[in-house]
Each structure stands twice: as structure tokens, then as C-alpha cells.
Known about the structure:
The protein is of the alpha/beta class.
Amino acid sequence: MKLKRLFHALWWVVLATGLPAQAGEVTYHHFASEILGRDYPYTLYLPAGYHETQQAYPVLYLLHGSHGNERDWVDKGNLERTADRLIAQGVIPPLVIVMPGSQSWWIDGYNEAARSAFLDELVPQVEATWRVVPQRDWRAIAGLSAGGYGTLNFILERPDLFAAAAALSPASYVPLPPRNSSATRHPAFLDAAGDFDADLWQQRNYPAYLDDYAEQGQIVPLYLSAGHRDVYNAAHHARVVHQALAPHQPELLTFEVLRGGHTWRVWRKSLPNALAWIGRFLKPPVALESLPPSS
């Protein structure tokens, strides 16, 4: 009888707090990158039941910000608990989340070829190592700040790869980053003389991909967000992104302004809505025997 009461008490705690009945698993990995000439680290979230099922899962690549690392989303972003809750509530399908580490702004910059390493090494490595469906309809990408910058660049350059995306406080400044942005001092954009290369910024920033993206037949549904007191005025720049894409995909674009600045408080608050948006477009897990071929 006491055991029964304890069970009911714990169940009501779960309901009251929103904690899921089952938790996913977070682990840390790396592989040798020929492009980078060093190990490529990434943090991995596996949904509850991953090891027991005979299924392949959708995958989300979740990018960190400038001078961040592959552990940020777990250590600061409440990623594990948020994903557990949304999966348990049926808001998003069970999915694998890959959080890579980069020393660049997700571009092929002066310090490393982060874009090439991501597309040509990390994605194939993940698809060869973990049970994820290697097709566009099961693949998404998101990121914050510099990771939002990378997200926009990736989806506009390669809409054939991603079914949905989210850019939180994207550091996609037009025409150039503000002086207080770390981009102006980041090794990715500093030439041999140590000067910020404005031409490289404009060559790598999302407007450079807009025309080609509009001419392609594939659209990537996009969630945008930013804080209303962002010190880099990210809300304004996200609104510019929204205005640029709205004529092309009016029903597959959303923008949310939150109270706060360029901080983890805003990104933690934005993450559930970003994941919910992405979950609308990702296909659910599939049985291994019906796994589609790579694309």
C-alpha cells in the first residue's frame, strides 16, 4: 500500500513539473578529421529507447555560438530536459541531436574549413555511426548566434539537405557585423595581417546565397527568434532575414521576439518553440528494414 502511494506521489510530481517519464542519453564523441587536421568533437543526445528499438531516427544538428563548444547546449541550454519533455508530450518525434564543436563561425574561414568539415565529414560520420535516416526529410539544423549565422548559410546554400531549421539570435548582420560583435575579432575572419576581412564576411553571409536559393525548388521552413534587448540588435537583423525570405516562403517562416538580450536565458526560452517548429516538418522514426537509401 505504501509503495502504491509512493508511485502515485511520484506520478503527480511528474505531471506537476512536466518531467518526462523517460530520459534520453547524452554522450560525448570525436573522430579524426582530415579537413581540420585534428579531432572533430560532438555531443550526442539519444532519445529514450534508442538502444532497445530497431528503428532509425530523424536527426537535428544543433550549432553553438562564437567561442562556444560542443557542450554548450547541454551545459547551458537545458537541451536534454527540454528534448525529453517535448518527446514525451508528442510535440516532436523521438530524434537524435548532434551538437558539434567548431573553432570557426561554421564557414571555411582563415582559421579552419568548418563548413567543409561539417558537410563532408561530420554528417557522413553521424549517418555511418548512428541510426539516423540519411535523407532530407529526416534531417534538420538549428543554432544560436554564430550558430544561427551558420544555420542560415547552410540551409540557403544546401536546401536539399535539410527539412527544417531554426536560427536563434542569428549573428547574420547586414551588411557587416557591429563593432562589438566578436566576428570582428574572430580568427575565422582575420586575414594574415590580423585585420577583419569585410569581403570574406559578405561572401559567406546569407545574402550571397539568396538568389540561388530562390531559384531552387526546395524550401526550408525556418523559425527565427531574438531578444528585444539584444546588444547586437539581432532582432532587427532577424527581421531583415524574415523580410528577405517572406516573398519566397510566406507560410513556411516564423519570427518570435522574446524579452531579454543576447543571452542563454533567451535561448533556453526559445528552444522549445524552435524544436516544436522543427518537429512539424521532420518525419518520425522508421523501422530499419524499411530504411530509405542515403540522399
